[in-house]
Design a protein that fits this description.
By secondary structure, the chain is mainly alpha-helical. It is rod-shaped and about 50 Å long. It is about 90% helix and about 0% strand. The model has no long low-confidence stretch (mean pLDDT about 85). The protein contains one helix and no strands.
Length: about 35
Amino acid sequence: MMTRGSAPLKVLVRPVLAFGFALLTLLAPVSLRIKTP
């Protein structure tokens, strides 16, 4: 059961982490611009 449950978890976590990382890289400069006009 562990192998059956861990496989889909990894498949779901990888794109979520990639999406979060992309969001961070895109929002970081925007937030810096807002803080320092």
